[in-house]
Known about the structure:
Blueprint: H1 2-9, H2 13-34, H3 37-95, H4 101-154, H5 170-180, E1 188-192, H6 196-208, E2 212-217, H7 220-232, E3 239-243, E4 246-251, E5 254-259, E6 270-275, H8 290-294, E7 298-306, H9 312-323, E8 329-337, E9 340-347
Parallel strand pairs: 1-2, 1-6, 2-3, 6-7
Antiparallel strand pairs: 4-5, 7-9, 8-9
Helix pairs in contact: 2-3, 4-5, 5-6
Amino acid sequence: MLRALRSLLGSRWPILGMLGALVAVAVAVGALIDGSVVEAAISALLGLALVGLVIVGASAREAEQRARKLDAQLKHLASATDAISTTLKAIESKQDDPGGGALAAAIGAQRLDAAVRHDELLARHDQLRGEVVTALTEDQLSELSALTNLYAMLGPDDEVPVFGGYAARPTTVLRLASLVRRLPGDALVVECGSGSSTVWLALACRRAGRGRVIALEHHERYAELTRTALARQGLESVAQVRVAPLEPVTVGDQTQDWYEGKNWADLGGIDLLFVDGPPRSTGPRSRYPAFPLLARALNDGAVVALDDVNREDEADIAGDWLAEPADGVTLRDAGTIGRTRFFTASRGQDN
């Protein structure tokens, strides 16, 4: 009956119901004024009934709208379910195909390829791991053996700066120390840079009873640390560390920051030149000027050693030194020890 009434009145029935309730309230008030309590009560009840009818009708309409929306969602869900069911049936039919079908063939090929790649990666990983471990072990054993030889051969009386970081490696220092013992009595060893190698070279000079060491160092703090280490061994009379700030120098068409000229201009009669500075941070080819600028001070047959030739810049510098004589001095390759390349200096045209 409520739905029929709503259909008859259309969307106007809530308004009409509320107007009816207001009229009933007005009649009830008038009846009370006239003293008719029964008519007032009846009118009030009629107004409340109309209000209740409007409320119930509104709730029913809202519930109907929700039901319609839910029904639409259920239909959409049913449609999606049917589509999924159809797809699953198609996949099942492909899987049931004795030949595997195109889908099974594609999946099988991908699985086989993935399995093969996985096995290849595992095999390569094991191979590389073995190569790295072997290389590290051999390198560490070599350096440890060289360090043991240094202590046995030179026997320092006190603490020596440890190797590591930017310091020359024990294999390099061992070769340099061995060369020092074969130098003439008034031999001069010049080192570009200072540190633990300076101490070991000075120890080699003292043990051989000949030679002296001069190290050029651009950093005051590192120079002082090296001097302290030398003093700890009582080597002040054997080795000298000169603080030589860096300044731009031009050799040929190249300009680099190198040690201040006044700190090396007096050097002469060099029998061993070890180039382990300036550091790379001062420039990519900062060590190049060492041979061109000090060539005039090298004795015939002097040994020149360039550290860190495992780096591209230093490897290029070594190549340039071999190809470019300076002040009548030519360098000949004398082999590589670890990451240090050795050269022999020769004077004259017949070398």
